[in-house]
Model the fold of this input.
Amino acid sequence: MIRILSDENVHADIVSGLRQKGFDVVTAVESGFAGRKDIEILDHAEKHDLLVLSGDKDFGGLIEFGSLWGRGRVLLLRYQLLNVRKIVEDIARVLRSETENISQSGSFVIVLSESGYRVRRPNP
Done:
């Protein structure tokens, strides 16, 4: 099962909606990571096999180009409008369709928006 660590910037209703759909979601606040640096959150997520859910594009940069190059897994929300129901449905759909990719080792960033999603892996 995919376990998710939700960053502080993810709306509480999105977390609640994912939990209602049966996803195992813990928030940064519940984990004691409120106000912590992105790199600390990613490091914790990697150590505990968690997928980070965030709206902060800095997470993707850390994995693709920064100090966590080649490590970590992030689902990055890039929606222009907050439509909680649609976002929850989209996340659930992507997590179900990408389960195999998510379960495999290696790092990636899934960028999710109104227009769909794409999976980005660090350049070798």
Notes: Residues 3-113 form one domain.
